[in-house]
Amino acid sequence: MTTELDDTTSEPIDAPQTPGDDSQSDDEQIDDEQIDASFDLSGEAGSESDAQPEAEEPVDDPWTRPGAWYVVHTQSGYEKKVSANLTARIQSMNMEEKIYEIVIPMEDVEEFKNGRKQTVQKKVFPGYLLVRCVMDDDSWYCIRNTPGVTGFVGQSKHGQKPTPLSRREVQTFLAAKGDGTGGLAPRKKPKVDFDPDAENKLVAAICYSHSSLPESALLERVRRLGVDEKLALIRAYVGARGNRRHKPGRAFERVDYRFDVLSDYGAFRDLQRHRLLTIEWQALTPNHGYTRPDLVDAAGVGGLFTETMERSARLYDDLKPQFPEQASYAVAMAFRLRYAMQFNAREAIHLIELRSAPQGHPSYRRVVLEMHRLIAEQAGHRAVAEAMQHLTTEAPELERLASERRAEQRRGGDAPVM
After folding, report:
1. CA-to-CA distance for 76 and 222, rounded, in angstroms?
2. Which of 127, 128, 158, 126 minimizes the C-alpha distance to 140?
3. Whole-number Å distance between alpha carbons of 255 and 276
4. In sequence order, what are the residues at sequence separation of 6 or more whose Cβ sits closer than 8 angstroms to the Cβ of residue 368?
5. CA triplet 195, 201, 203: central angle to 5 degrees?
6. Sheet (strand 256-264) strand order
7. Which of 63, 142, 221, 345 could form a disulfide with 252 if both were Cys (CB 3.0 to 4.6 A apart)?
8. What is the rounded distance in angstroms from the CA atom of residue 352 to the CA atom of residue 370?
9. Do domains 1-38+189-284+335-418 and 62-173 have the same CATH topology?
10. Please, which residues bridge with residue 192 across strands?
């Protein structure tokens, strides 16, 4: 969101002012349809003191429903068919009072196809179902002998009852919905913290070395400037950057961002290499699902890829009880990991411009392009986003081949024909 600014000007700041172009309107509506991250703005907007609190709707927590939740392994690609088979088997065996619910975990995923971004539904855990039941010999027999079911997750020994999901796992995987349908929770969107007053602080930092005033006094004067004047100062400070190595000055270090990211482990490892930032990550597990590139399906090896991911997840499950610290080594790099990245705007310019280059991998290109969009649209820091003059915004595809062809042509050789 953008901060509303007073269009009236105050006495001039002791810094050169350059006429600038009109900035985008503060009343511009932001399209939230394809937002992969949200912001924690609690406490920013006040409420009327006499406003009556709205009555909270009753929430149906899946953890409090009868029975316990179990993870059932199925043949990959046949989850819906296995679910239908199990539903029919429950009815034919009169097991409705012991087996209550079957869920195929799904999530909305943003994908680029033919150069366009679109939202598609994908299985969070391909090859798995979540089943809520009272586990005894009868319910175990009914589920285990359903066509397509290959076993339970958490059953370490033959004949032993499987281990149910913990409360934390249930609340992570399933929605606390009020309609009682027990659907999967919409995946909690990553958050990013930002300072709503950041661009004012940026302008004050720009003017600081040209003034004899304390920063607090400069900041008060900046807040009274109009949008065009602030934008003109920022543009004059950034100047015409000949290439991405021409960085703007250190005033941009006055602005900070913290992103909460969920991406595949391979993208994380590339972004982890940056040093001028803080990065923290959670344990690598199969619990967030995995990404399967379109090129895998195009090559006709989608089934082999899925089978490999399932083997990786099963190995993790087998190792975790005895080797909880080492089990992550069994998790393939296509599985997703949650991590937080915190850096200032000057580092954001370096990281986003570098990692958005066409030669980069599509996974981390998507991450940094979304960061740029969030800085511009959600935080409303359009002047900061505009300073990233060497950003590559084309759809993230595997474009390294084109770069290799150009390099080969510069060396005087013939580029490979595809």
Report:
1. 59
2. 158
3. 14
4. 271, 351, 352, 355, 356
5. 135
6. 192-194, 256-264, 336-344, 278-281
7. 345
8. 10
9. no
10. 259
CATH of domain 62-173: 3.30.70.940
CATH number of 1-38+189-284+335-418, picked from 3.30.1360.170, 3.40.190.10, 3.40.50.800, 2.40.10.170: 3.30.1360.170
Query: Which residues are 351's β-sheet partners?
Result: none
Question: For 31-79, how does the pLDDT look when each residue is reduced to its tens digit (9 = 90+)?
Answer: 333 333 333 322 333 333 344 444 545 556 777 888 999 988 887 678 8
Query: Are 341 and 258 a contacting pair, CB within 8 Å?
Result: yes
Q: What are the backbone dihedrals phi and psi of residue 128, each rounded to the nearest 5 degrees, phi first?
A: -135, 150
Q: What is the CA radius of gyration of the chain?
A: 26
- Return d(Cα 361, Cα 354) in angstroms, integer: 12
For β-strands 256-264 and 278-281, DSSP reports them as: unpaired
Domain ranges, ordered by start, for the chain? 1-38+189-284+335-418, 62-173
Q: At which residue do the structure tokens 């009272």 appear? A: 134
Residue 155's closest CA among 269, 67, 70? 70
* Separation of alpha carbons 185 and 281, rounded Å: 22
Whether the full predicted model's pTM is greater than 0.70, yes or no, is no
